Amino acid sequence: MAYGAKTYTLREESTESGTRYSISFKDGQGESHELEVSEQLFFEFRQMERRNRNLQQWNQRHREFNEVWDETLYRRALRVPKTLDERMIEKERNELFYKVVARLPEIQRRRFLLYYEYDFNFYQIGEMEHCTASAVQKSVSVAREKVKAEMRKYLKP
After folding, report:
1. 114 and 120 Cβ atoms separated by less than 8 Å
2. pTM over 0.70
3. Whether residue 88 is found in the same domain as residue 58
4. How far apart are CA 143 and CA 109, in angstroms?
5. Which terminus of the chain, N or C, has less C-beta within 10 A?
6. 38 assigned to some structural domain
7. Does residue 102 share a domain with residue 143?
């Protein structure tokens, strides 16, 4: 049964002997029934219908307040999106980082990027460069210290 679908019908009849009130409905087996009810019960049903109708109208008008808003979704998210300020700061740091890396000597820059950017290990880089893994490790370590020092110099408040 759909929400809001009426399962009964109210009927008011005027007769010579007075007003007659009845409710018609179908039972679980689909058989129709009609019951004569008191005036008080009839008007209680009417009152209930009005309250339900008003509630449904109020629901329609205010449904948007019950919807989930972006702000609520952000709070529920596993990773909260960064604010505009945070994104701008991150972008500036990344630009500075790549400028610092670009100023490294050629061999150090290449090894540094192969290790950190492309996830090669020291042995793989050593094979590409025709040198030992320890030489690559030392080169990457020196490059990392240079980058750290430069970044600290620029990012100190």
Report:
1. yes
2. no
3. no
4. 7
5. C
6. yes
7. yes
Nearest to 133 by CA among 143, 123, 118, 142: 123
Tens-place pLDDT, residues 24-34: 888 888 888 89
What is the C-alpha separation between 101 and 95, in angstroms, rounded?
Answer: 10
**Spatial CA neighbour of 111 closest among 125, 95, 131, 97:** 125
**Residue whose entry in the numeric block shows the structure tokens 């679908």:** 5
The residue type of 29 is: Q
Asked if residue 143 belongs to a domain, the reply is yes
Q: How many domains does the chain have?
A: 2
Phi, psi of 20 (to 5 degrees): -115, 135
pLDDT in tens, 60-119: 776 655 566 666 666 666 677 788 999 999 999 999 999 999 999 999 999 999 999 999
Average predicted confidence (pLDDT) for the chain = 85
Q: Are 82 and 93 in contact (CB under 8 A)?
A: no
